[in-house]
Amino acid sequence: MLRTSLRPWHRPACWLRPYSTLPSLDPALAPTPDPAERKAKAKADWKRRAQGSNFVDTLRVTVASGKGGSGGVAFHREKFVRRGPPAGGNGGVGGSVYLVASPSVSNLSHLGRTVRAGPGGAGRGSWLGGARGEDAIIRVPVGTVVREIRQKSTDEEVLEQEKEERKELEWAYEANRIRMEEAQAREIRWQKWKKRRDQAEKFGDPDDVEAWEELDEEPIAQHKLDALVKLRKALFVMYPGAELDGHPGFLRTEHQLLSKMLSREIDMPASRVKGRFRRNRAWDEEEDDAPLYLDLVKPTPIDDPILLVPGGQPGLGNPSFLTHEDRSPKYATRGGEGDRVIFELEVKSIGEVGLVGLPNAGKSTLLRSLTSSAPRVASYAFTTLNPHHGTCIIWSDGTFSGPRAAPHSSDEAEISDTPSTPLYFSAEKQHASRAERRKHLPADFPRRGDSERSEVLRFTMTDNPGLVKDSSLNVGLGHAFLRHIERCSALVYVVDLSSPDPCGAIRSLRKELREYARMKEMREGELEGRIRGVVANKADLFGPAEAEEQVEMDAGEADVDPAALEEARRKSAEDGRRKLVELMEYVRGVEKEEMEAGIRSPEDPIWVVPISAKKRQNVPALVNKLAETVKKERARAAEQAKAAEEAEAGEEKYEEDD
Ligand SMILES: Nc1nc2c(ncn2[C@@H]2O[C@H](COP(=O)(O)OP(=O)(O)OP(=O)(O)O)[C@@H](O)[C@H]2O)c(=O)[nH]1
Ligand SMILES: [Mg+2]
């Protein structure tokens, strides 16, 4: 009888849930009945508990390619053919490790610390080749910087390492020396024996001369034999009980492999040599063995991935050693080792416009109001822990939108603090039909293929986590935040206009940018110079509605005096105006200072736009400014690229003329 439900240790399922979802006794803390809200809260809790570990933007991975498969030693057998030709297949090539920069991944959390490609299969009888090793593909976000890490970096250290490796290879050198000596001695013996035999054939009795086989049996010292056996095991797969010295081709192959190995051209089974030498890799041919450095600013075509570490060479089967002298080679070569390299991956997002601001300034709200990206928004600091990207599209009829959002026609539309994705576009409803989704869209939402409007401009924006004091000294998650700012071509400060000191916010943001640029050894004022504008957010807090609300709240139950209301409205608007003017003056001062310091060109003044990201007020004016900025930056980048191309062409011509 099934008694699971009666077991004394059986507990209700809620006992097993994580603590955050335990039913609370306090009615105020009871879970909200709205499932969407509950889900959002659980997700935020989980993310906070994970402390950002679900977003990984720097990672050190050890990448190992697969070993090549050994060649097979076999002979063909069939009815009436007792001793067929050699029939061992070649081994399979070891799996390689490739790298792909893909727009569909946003961070490195899917990667482990080690990425390993599969080994190649061994060759088998009947000329069957071994299987290729399985390749491994590392997918990284576009904008990732890849650096090869060498434990030994200076020349002396490399020399030291080579010396160590040489020591490890000592036995191979020894074996080679023995082989050479042995071959020489054998040659001398052979010449002597041949001379004696020829003379005996001419002048005397040939039977007086002993057979060559008898002479050839000069014993080799045991330690020499050991070295040879070790070497052969490392390089060859041998047929059981094979007498390899009887194969002239074997000695030649052995000699070739050995000299190649000693001149470092082939890989060597790692089990034999601890400090293996580096294999030749694709980029080594051009860049005489400099550590690899890649900056993946563009997506890699999936059919042309970047080869990071090639797999080990396959071993050759015994038919490869078939010669006239040796009709049944009883050996095959082993596959080469794969390589093992350590890489450091660092994601530096590439957005055209990067938002920089203190925590709670409303950066995420702004991104949500301009694009279809939906970073979480909440009224506490550090809501955003990793960068979010969005695309803003401007249409020919002057509206703008992210790809999934409805055009912003109304200024009243509010953004809630829960996920902005309309339910009909959310993951739960992914199977809703298009007609069903359309029912939930405004009547004027453009249909696919609408001819009246076309896309005019599209640019990407990055919402970055808030900067705090001393972010540049890596306080908190400082550098992790600043890293993503590094590559945005234009930066925009987002400040909370309703805060007591918006100018102070700009002052501390500037300081952090300056310090970070200095630490990263960028050009003086590199990041500050990239600031193109200031968004004075939360301007709605100075609007009439807010003021009235405040007066009504102060009055409580009592009737509100209309004059007081009027006065409050006027005062609030005046406050807002004063703060904005102060901010603008401060920004003019900053601009002037930077132009004098030579970090800002006169063509790049800093604009200031007051908006309300939450209520989407004055957002179109901001979009126009951003569009102008983006166009200017693109034109500048194109100009720079052209100049660089011309300079390169000029240099080539100069070299040719020389
Ligand atoms: N009244 C008003 N509130 C706003 C506006 N923009 C943002 N907020 C509110 O400010 C709070 C913080 O907004 P976020 O967008 O999360 O701020 P953030 O800069 O992304 O903050 P971090 O992610 O912590 O750096 C939220 O409660 C928003 O609703 C605005 O224009 N007007
Ligand atoms: Mg945020």
From TrEMBL:
Bias-annotated ranges (Acidic residues): 646-658
Coiled coil: 159-186
Alphabetical list of Pfam families matching this protein: GTP1_OBG, MMR_HSR1
Ranges annotated as spanning the membrane: none
The keyword GTP-binding appears for this protein: yes
Region feature Disordered, mapped onto this chain: 632-658
One Gene Ontology molecular-function label: GTPase activity
GO cellular component: mitochondrion
Residue ranges of every copy of the Obg domain listed in the record: 53-350
GO biological process terms, semicolon-separated: ribosome biogenesis
Biased composition (Basic and acidic residues): 632-645
Keywords assigned: Coiled coil, GTP-binding, Nucleotide-binding
Chain ranges of the OBG-type G domain: 351-631
PANTHER family: DEVELOPMENTALLY REGULATED GTP-BINDING PROTEIN-RELATED, MITOCHONDRIAL RIBOSOME-ASSOCIATED GTPASE 2
Protein name in the entry: GTP binding protein
